[in-house]
């Protein structure tokens, strides 16, 4: 309601009330925003509590029940962080290239990660201490339990911090660092297998460089075959089936050797031979499919790139399946060891993997992906360099081939390092190709002419991410180790 002043102008009698209502409106908006931001952590805490409750019900009242409940909660927390951080490497390129929307990528990854963990996660796993510290040097079962618990919690905390700062890191190296730190404090540095740590340190350089070089080489070949020719559609009909065959053969060998190794172990040579047969089959099937799909397409680079969308989606799904089969052990390996020692009272280098423990790992990875995964998926897929379906296809194919080659050479590489290295590789190749094309005599520049000095400054890869990611990789093992030492010391004081 308003009245008029002495000059006849309307006067608002409710200015104070209006200001108060605006403040209340802003307060309500802030409260709603805060409540939405707390939904994901609330669901994660509920899952951790549910894992502990399930462990308490299944273990029953016994002397080791409390230890197993705490171990189950830590295992669930670890699985959540693996899903939040590590799965981005599989789905990031597909999302960044717009082959998949974010929601579709999350659903596909969650289904494939769960399937890989439950169907191919294995019923027996080697404890994460194997190859890092001699488990029998610990002697005391209680000391061994504290080592496993400290290692898992330290790795989970580091993964949580890395996800928060936006750094994709290796979950395997995180748990290795945790076991190294807690094991060294418990058993002494003489019980540590130093050669394993040396190979891991070497993989910090070998994995990303090898992945980047292979991805860049693939992109250069595809450009020469299909993108930089006059008859692009004709070239695509001839070469896309060949690349689909290479993709099918590579992932056939990859899934057999890495994804299904817990179900029926297959030697690398046999897996590659079966993969070769599967690749030939994929090539034969792709020829008529690509011919039909390419009909009516314009003779443009964009048309060729659309033909790589489906193979890229399949590759991302298979990478997630293999990741779930392999990395579920990083989440629940320490928990399985704790359950075994609590029940039997002895230390072994291999332990059984109960179904409920496997479920904690599988569901935790999926929940972590759905609740916290989009942040790193966006970073990997679009914030390092611009990806399209062809570049993302090269990254996915490079990741599978590099893992196979590294396994053949006996190198403990990280799929995270390989995938991120592949993205940097295609980005640097884009810079090289763009500068070489622009420096050719008579080259036609799109848009406003750019001087050569300015052109050199226009980079296609964000350099800040190189330092951020490389620093996170280097400090993963030592940070997890020192954190595990501190946690182990506190646990022994409490116990």
TrEMBL record:
<feature type="transmembrane region" description="Helical">
    <location>
        <begin position="307"/>
        <end position="325"/>
    </location>
</feature>
<comment type="similarity">
    <text>Belongs to the inorganic phosphate transporter (PiT) (TC 2.A.20) family.</text>
</comment>
<feature type="transmembrane region" description="Helical">
    <location>
        <begin position="415"/>
        <end position="432"/>
    </location>
</feature>
<feature type="transmembrane region" description="Helical">
    <location>
        <begin position="67"/>
        <end position="88"/>
    </location>
</feature>
<feature type="transmembrane region" description="Helical">
    <location>
        <begin position="144"/>
        <end position="167"/>
    </location>
</feature>
<feature type="transmembrane region" description="Helical">
    <location>
        <begin position="174"/>
        <end position="192"/>
    </location>
</feature>
<feature type="transmembrane region" description="Helical">
    <location>
        <begin position="38"/>
        <end position="61"/>
    </location>
</feature>
<feature type="transmembrane region" description="Helical">
    <location>
        <begin position="204"/>
        <end position="222"/>
    </location>
</feature>
<dbReference type="Pfam" id="PF01384">
    <property type="entry name" value="PHO4"/>
</dbReference>
<dbReference type="InterPro" id="IPR001204">
    <property type="entry name" value="Phos_transporter"/>
</dbReference>
<keyword id="KW-0812">Transmembrane</keyword>
<feature type="transmembrane region" description="Helical">
    <location>
        <begin position="100"/>
        <end position="120"/>
    </location>
</feature>
<keyword id="KW-0592">Phosphate transport</keyword>
<feature type="transmembrane region" description="Helical">
    <location>
        <begin position="242"/>
        <end position="260"/>
    </location>
</feature>
<feature type="transmembrane region" description="Helical">
    <location>
        <begin position="266"/>
        <end position="286"/>
    </location>
</feature>
<keyword id="KW-0813">Transport</keyword>
<keyword id="KW-1133">Transmembrane helix</keyword>
<protein>
    <recommendedName>
        <fullName>Phosphate transporter</fullName>
    </recommendedName>
</protein>
<feature type="transmembrane region" description="Helical">
    <location>
        <begin position="355"/>
        <end position="377"/>
    </location>
</feature>
<keyword id="KW-0472">Membrane</keyword>
<feature type="transmembrane region" description="Helical">
    <location>
        <begin position="466"/>
        <end position="491"/>
    </location>
</feature>
<feature type="transmembrane region" description="Helical">
    <location>
        <begin position="389"/>
        <end position="409"/>
    </location>
</feature>
